[in-house]
Design a protein that fits this description.
Length: about 325
């Protein structure tokens, strides 16, 4: 089997953790690209010097030259500016769209057969723009948001119930913004509905609902909560872990069912937009969108989230992208 190669476009906070996770798990060779001279080279040198301690082999390189990404199986994009406190993801639109445009042109030129996972925010718009400029087929261009949002939801549920987070299954659909849709009805602890466990805990249906509402709201605002604490920069451990779980499913053809910011062609009643939905990830990228039935309330929330994604994409189009 030939060695796999993952290129990381953006060598900042998330890019660095991505490189470390790939190296430690020996998933693939790593190319870390950034426009800042010496930054990716410095990070990779530091990481390589941990290889004896952590017992990993593999080719790691840092570069400011796009040619080095040629032959990549997967490209993960974090290039862009992170949110500052008080700034919404959407405020980042123009700056990051300009960056994404140049990234898309270069990835199409040097890694035309790669599968691309976008992390840069505002996510739904950045994936759309990458696909538009690269012309890559939709199954090879998608975004990371839902794995992280779902993990945040699962974490809060585990803390609330005092049980292992490993047993929590929680799914968040929709756009990667304040309108995202954590699915309460489908959240479970090894198959047991979370709502049932909450009702038993409090012996009070209304209290259980209030607790769940608070967790749903915290999930929607979780990115901002981290930004507020960090003061500079945004979340980086969790977005990196989320993207690696997607990359791993692709490289190992695991066919995991993960929430992915995927292009919809009529699924979930959406046509022509990238929205967070469950999808099967395998060696071809997105192999299938997994549909599920939503009740009236859930569908209403999903429609609202899709509306926000459409507005974001329309804003971007109006701004000339
Ligand atoms: N090409 C490549 N890299 C670029 C470019 C470009 N045109 N412009 C900026 N970068 C690099 C920066 O030099 C920086 O090293 O992107 C990197 C971004 O890193 P950080 O600022 O540390 O941001 P990070 O926390 O990694 O988040 C990256 O992911 O979650 C989103 O909102 C977040 O959009 C942000 C992105």
């Amino acid at each position: 089997m030939s060695r796999k190669k993952i290129s990381l476009i953006g060598g900042g906070q998330i890019g660095g953790v991505l490189a470390q996770l790939i190296a430690q798990r020996e998933l693939a060779d790593v190319v870390l690209f950034d426009i800042v001279p010496d930054l990716p080279q410095g990070k990779i040198l530091d990481l390589a010097e941990a290889s004896r301690i952590d017992n990993f082999d593999g080719k790691l390189s840092g570069t400011n030259n796009y040619e080095d990404i040629s032959g990549s199986d997967i490209v993960i994009i974090t290039a862009g500016l992170p949110r500052k406190p008080g700034m919404s993801r959407d405020d980042l639109l123009v700056t990051n769209a300009n960056i994404m445009k140049s990234v898309a042109e270069n990835v199409s030129k040097y890694a035309p057969n790669s599968i691309v996972i976008v992390i840069s925010n505002p996510l739904d718009a950045m994936v759309t723009l990458f696909q538009k400029i690269s012309g890559f087929p939709n199954h090879r261009v998608f975004g990371q948001a839902g794995v992280l949002d779902s993990s945040r939801f699962a974490t809060f549920i585990a803390w609330e119930l005092g049980v292992s987070v490993k047993d929590i299954n929680a799914l968040v659909l929709g756009g990667h913004g304040d309108t995202m849709v954590p699915l309460i009805r489908y959240a479970n602890v090894n198959g047991i509905p979370v709502m049932e466990m909450l009702e038993r805990k409090y012996n009070d249906k209304q209290k259980a609902e209030e607790v769940m509402t608070a967790m749903v709201e915290r999930t929607k605002m979780a990115g901002g909560e981290v930004v507020k604490l960090l003061k500079t920069g945004s979340a980086f451990y969790s977005p990196a872990s989320a993207a690696i779980s997607m990359a791993e499913s692709i490289l190992k053809d695991e066919k995991r069912v993960l929430p992915v910011c995927a292009y919809l062609n009529g699924e979930f009643g959406v046509n022509g937009y990238y929205v967070g939905v469950p999808a099967i990830l395998g060696s071809n990228g997105i192999e299938k969108i997994v549909e599920l039935s939503l009740n009236e309330t859930e569908q209403g929330l999903m429609n609202n989230s899709v509306k926000a994604v459409k507005e974001l994409v329309e804003d971007m189009t109006r701004l000339g992208f």
